[in-house]
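note to self: dont lose this again. the chain is below, predicted strucutre after it. 246 aa total, dont forget to put it in the shared folder this time
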Amino acid sequence: MSWRKEQRRAERGYHHGNLKEALLQAALGLIAEKGAAGFTFADAARMAGVSAAAPYRHFRDRDELLSSIAQRGFEQFEARLTAAWDDGRPDTGTAFERVGRAYLAFAREEPAFYNAMFESGLPVDANPALQAASERAFNVIRAAAERLAALAPAGQPRPPAMMMALHIWSMAHGVASLFARGDAARRKLPMSPDELLEAEVLIYLRGLGFATDRRPQASSAGPPPVPPEAPSGSGVPPGGPWGKPK
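---
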């Protein structure tokens, strides 16, 4: 659910005394416009149409208000990732790709929440509820990585699932923060962010020895033909793990 829809609902609810929700939605609106560091506690009160003292009825300070927003963001993020993972159905690889796309989609569609979650500078471990929400979201990625690590080829050492989860989280977060965000800081790409993340993960998995080619297997009549290598110095780049460059 986008913050704009929640804001309209909060505005209706505020007339019935829902001050806390009105402040949360006001702060979300300010984050969307100025970033998590671009507003004050008084700005949030002004946006909500209340006095500068009113927010202190529900929040100790601006950081606690931001923590509440980040916590809500992580809860929605976890729900998105969980739905995308779907317990690994219909197969681990397909479900894993969906998790990556869901990560990027959240950053694109919920830039205010994403900013509060990852760019506000809040110490996550200082707020137990926020820390628990962030860990539940990460645990979806970790569960997917554990399932993927179990598919390590025979004869290859199985990579630690936690290491894989951290590496893949870093890749997804990097692409999301640079190229898939829903605000003006998004950088341009010659491809979609989803394609970039897919290529990055393919390179990573191939480096760990995983089979990443999903093309139909050739008939048993013989091995597929190997394309000739480009002459040295021709300037033609070799094909990557996803095929020849177009």
